[in-house]
Amino acid sequence: MANDMLLSQDTYKKIDREVAKFPADQKQSAVMAALAIAQDEKGWLAPETMQDVADYLGMPAIAVQEVATFYNMYNTKPVGKHKISICTNLPCQLSGGDRAAAHLKHKLGIDFRETTADGQFTLVEGECMGACGDAPVLLVNNKRMCSWMSNEKIDGLIAELSEVTPK
Known about the structure:
By secondary structure, the chain is α+β, with helices and mostly antiparallel strands. The chain has helices at 9-19, 31-42, 47-57, 61-70, 90-108, 151-163; strands at residues 82-87, 114-115, 121-126, 138-140, 144-146. The longest helix has 19 residues, at 90-108.
């Protein structure tokens, strides 16, 4: 592979495993997985990262950008080490979502779509996470669902995530 590739060899191997799930002439079908894998390595999807994914999958860069900007699990701007999405749909709002959002904003000292000064936390509004009965619901880094988030559970989550931050 050329030395000018943007992502690590390990990341390309992971993308190759996703590409292998589709017919050879449809490798662009792996674009969502490829973007998630690239984001896991880089933290966010810079224009050059999206271009690299497009080149690797043999598809137009604009098509990759359309996918990355349509779905809110993709970060097209830098985010903190821990991106916390809080569901802001009505069922969560009626079950404490407003309170949880206010508590998070106060605790972190940021508003939605902002990142703490230390670069550790970004807070974003989320759409329905399919767990209305578990409200309020948070999603950490698009992978970890946290349910029934009382102020105490939020405080514990922030403390836990702060501890795993590399020195």
